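Is this the right way to post structure tokens for a design question? Let me know if I should format differently. Anyway, here goes:
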């Protein structure tokens, strides 16, 4: 293991990133293969590749919904968590879930603050989603992105069409719990410190990992809002010194949609998932300003408990 660690640490950061990305891609491929057999047992999907792919891509049956939830769960574990685990082993654990001296004392404060900021960020997600689509409008890429968005929306609505407590539990695990843990473990726990060391800047580390985080979802109308969320999670990790703060915020962001779909039902699925097409009025502007002020006030309160300086040496000295 020491030989592999030394070999990895001596690689150029570009090659380190490429290696970790390849691990994630291999994990994705393996998860598709494994999920074919797991879904045949749990969800009664066919073993024939063409039929299996068709059922999962349309998700218009119970087997399709079940299959997507299972495959997404396996993918999170093998691809994202697997790549993050390999990284943590190769660098000796530095950078993943940093806990400098003093970080634990402010954990609950940061966790509650992160949850409040995530919920208050909703109007900014709406306006940046609109901006995102406007930027792509009129380009050839807009047509391609529209197709991906439409397909993703069909799958999302199918998975969030929850009819029982058992389905709610399964959906929370596959859509909220596992993605929050696995994605934060890789993107904020591994790639963020890697990019920081590469560039010599924590800010570059935060934003580069947020860009990769958003791009890998392959939903380009939501690229900017998802990138902003990723950057917010990144800054919370550096300031708090604890990866679980970002995991908690990520979970709340995803779980709020699942719970809303379960509680409000079909009507919310038709209107609540996509940003409103109605133009913003004075009420939306005022509410956004108030939410923005709320976020700033929370950030200022948390700043006094930050372990940013202690984390800086850990991030920029990674692998030295």
């Amino acid at each position: 293991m020491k030989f592999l660690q030394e070999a990895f640490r001596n690689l150029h950061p570009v090659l380190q990133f490429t290696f970790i990305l390849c691990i994630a891609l291999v994990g994705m491929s393996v998860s598709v293969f494994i999920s074919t057999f797991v879904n045949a047992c749990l969800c009664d999907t066919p073993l024939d590749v063409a039929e299996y792919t068709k059922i999962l891509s349309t998700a218009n049956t119970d087997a399709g919904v079940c299959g997507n939830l299972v495959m997404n769960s396996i993918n999170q574990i093998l691809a994202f968590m697997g790549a993050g685990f390999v990284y943590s082993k190769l660098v000796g654990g530095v950078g993943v879930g940093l806990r400098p001296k003093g970080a634990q004392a402010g954990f609950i404060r940061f966790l509650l603050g992160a949850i409040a900021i995530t919920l208050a960020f909703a109007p900014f997600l709406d306006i940046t989603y609109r901006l995102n689509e406007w930027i792509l409008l009129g380009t050839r890429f807009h047509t391609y992105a529209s197709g991906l968005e439409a397909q993703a929306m069909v799958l999302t609505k199918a998975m969030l069409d929850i009819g029982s407590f058992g389905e709610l539990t399964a959906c929370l695990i596959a859509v909220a719990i596992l993605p929050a843990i696995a994605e934060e473990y890789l993107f904020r726990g591994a790639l963020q410190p890697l990019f920081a060391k590469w560039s010599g800047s924590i800010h570059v580390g935060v934003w580069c990992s947020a860009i990769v985080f958003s791009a890998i979802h392959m939903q380009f109308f939501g690229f900017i809002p998802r990138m902003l969320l990723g950057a917010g999670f990144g800054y919370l990790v550096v300031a708090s010194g604890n990866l679980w703060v970002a995991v908690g915020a990520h979970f709340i962001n995803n779980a709020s949609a699942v719970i809303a779909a379960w509680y409000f039902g079909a009507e919310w699925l038709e209107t609540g998932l996509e940003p409103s097409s109605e133009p913003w009025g004075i009420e939306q502007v005022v509410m956004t300003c108030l939410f923005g002020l709320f976020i700033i006030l929370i950030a200022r309160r948390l700043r006094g408990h930050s372990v940013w300086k202690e984390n800086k040496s850990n991030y920029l000295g990674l692998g030295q």
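Format looks fine. Someone answered above. Worth noting: The longest helix spans residues 165-199. Residues 1-90 form one domain.
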